Amino acid sequence: MTELWTLLKYLILGLIQGFTEPIPISSSGHLIIFRELFNIEIKGLSFEILVNFGSLIAVLLIYKNDIIRLIKNGLNFIFKKDEEGKGDFQFIVFLVIATIPTGILGLLFEDYIGEKLSGVAIVGYTLLITGVALWIIRNLRGRKGDGDLTVKDAIIVGLAQSVALIPGISRSGATIVAAMLLGMKQETALRFSFLLYIPVSLGITVLSITDIIGDPDFDTLMIPYLIAFIASIIASFYALKWFINIMAKGNLKYFSFYCFIVGILVILFL
């Protein structure tokens, strides 16, 4: 019975992380909340790395056509001097530029964030901040398309993603808020946000392979981890498709309401 409950808890955690990763309500914050509710102590980062990798797979599946186009046109511009691929090449460059702040700030402040800013109470307050940010952009409709982005845009969105290293600050929310405040169209903000997730998540996964291999709990929790990983892929895939539809309809205010409600409940009761 205990083993069944363990499997069920990790299944729920995988579904929670997977569902909340693409939508602007903070997956890291929700993992902290539900780990507190289920009284689960997870040592090390192996679990979070694996379920985030599951979300990465879902993003790759949904944006595979964009990724293939960007790579193909980018290479054509580099090696064949094909001017039609210039815009896609620049888009790739901007994604690289936007990744740099997260990498630098993550290395500098990872330990501090893990020790000082990962409490349940902190998550309650940061969810309120996420809710306010989403409320501010709820009615924005930008004009900048993929070909109108600048180095400044990339740096600002990259810095916004860095802020989301703090649990409770949504990564997708922070980058989309920044992108739309800079005047990007909704579809461009979405595309840039989730394509930006790819190098960051992939980099974290690659750099953490040794941590996963050396995790003392990995052998005993391999099956629960695997279940959570698969659940994360499935939940992220359908959550992202749903979120793309929500963005198209301009219903971001509902995520804002959700963050306000959960943030207040966490502050009051956890």
Automatic annotation (TrEMBL):
| Annotated localization | Cell membrane
Q: Give the catalytic activity.
A: di-trans,octa-cis-undecaprenyl diphosphate + H2O = di-trans,octa-cis-undecaprenyl phosphate + phosphate + H(+)
Q: Which InterPro entries match?
A: UppP
Q: Which UniProt keywords apply?
A: Antibiotic resistance, Cell membrane, Cell shape, Cell wall biogenesis/degradation, Hydrolase, Membrane, Peptidoglycan synthesis, Transmembrane, Transmembrane helix
The membrane topology noted for this protein in its Swiss-Prot or TrEMBL record is: Multi-pass membrane protein
This entry carries the following GO cellular component terms, namely:
plasma membrane
Matches recorded under Pfam families: BacA (PF02673)
What biological-process GO terms show up in the record?
Answer: cell wall organization; peptidoglycan biosynthetic process; regulation of cell shape; response to antibiotic
This entry's Enzyme Commission designation comes to 3.6.1.27
What molecular function does GO assign, one term? undecaprenyl-diphosphatase activity
Question: Which family is annotated?
Answer: Belongs to the UppP family.
Q: What else is known?
A: Bacitracin is thought to be involved in the inhibition of peptidoglycan synthesis by sequestering undecaprenyl diphosphate, thereby reducing the pool of lipid carrier available.
Described function: Catalyzes the dephosphorylation of undecaprenyl diphosphate (UPP). Confers resistance to bacitracin.
Q: Which PANTHER family match?
A: UNDECAPRENYL-DIPHOSPHATASE (PTHR30622)
Protein known as: Undecaprenyl-diphosphatase
